[in-house]
Amino acid sequence: MAPLRFSANLSWLFPELSGFPARLRAAGSLGFEAAEIGWPYAEPPEALARAAREAGLRVVLINTPPGDREKGENGLGAVPGRQAAFREGLEQAVLYAKALDCSRIHLMAGRVPKGADRAAVRSEMEIVFLENLRHAAEVLAQENLVGLLEPINTRITDPRYFLDTPQQAAAILQKVGRPNLQLQMDLFHWQIMDGNLTGNVREFLPIVGHVQVAQVPGRGEPDSPGELNFSYLFQLLEDEGYTGFVGCEYQPRGEGGLSLAPGKASGGTVSDRGCLPPHGLRCCTPCSPQETQQRA
């Protein structure tokens, strides 16, 4: 049973630093071995690749471009009439993935059009999504890349997002039937939409290609106050044999604020129940001098 490995989501972490190269350096200095970037497209791919190498980091995940943000777009995969733009964005994402030696791309589904009834357009949007995913699977297979589908909650984060539950995403993956398309498990979104995390982790983990974490409901660090018991959830992922990276996609407290940074970790596995909690989750109360000395 291998211990979990964590990747720094640089679209969320180190908000005090300007630019992804600086954030890559910061993540590397804290001991991360991997990073993920939602939308890296404002930076030249060569510059990002050089910064990642210098920081000793693997880039393990990027997203397809969001589309026209000024028009409220947040992905294009399932959006009727935007098929050509999705495919152009996919080509750009593949270019960046190859430059960064990144093997996974989140294929963003996008939003239900403004003013449209979700139930009324669901069938049309699914048809568009299936068409785009089949195309994406072929393109990604040529480059030995994996595409990921991430359900995003529609109760707090994005009320118009098309893909919002693990069940919906798994059903679409089954219809596409391509082995290089997998599920992206963000426990923050899954808890808000469906709960039942133990059952859902066990059911869907065989088709999961990446995991992300944040506390519910505030999307803070896993050790911040909230609904989720991450000591239990991390142990569950280990017990179920998950070997990929766990993305730290949360709003940090203060500068950095990285409770999962390896440089802050105890160095043990989830089963370690010493002064420092598993995976560097900070204690709620300070350690005594005696405990600190024992752990040194």
TrEMBL record:
Q: Xylose isomerase-like TIM barrel domain: which residues?
A: 25-253
EC no.? Answer: 5.3.1.22
> According to its UniProt record, which reaction does this protein catalyse?
3-hydroxypyruvate = 2-hydroxy-3-oxopropanoate
Q: Which InterPro entries match?
A: HyI-like, Sugar_Epim/Isomerase, Xyl_isomerase-like_sf, Xyl_isomerase-like_TIM-brl
| Top EC class of this enzyme | isomerase
Q: Which GO terms describe its biological process?
A: glyoxylate metabolic process
What domain of life? Eukaryota
Q: Does the keyword Isomerase apply?
A: yes
| Active site residues according to the UniProt entry | E150, E249
Family per record = Belongs to the hyi family.
Protein task: Catalyzes the reversible isomerization between hydroxypyruvate and 2-hydroxy-3-oxopropanoate (also termed tartronate semialdehyde).
Question: What protein name is recorded for this chain?
Answer: Putative hydroxypyruvate isomerase
What is the species of this protein? Answer: Bos mutus grunniens (Wild yak)
Q: Which gene encodes it?
A: HYI
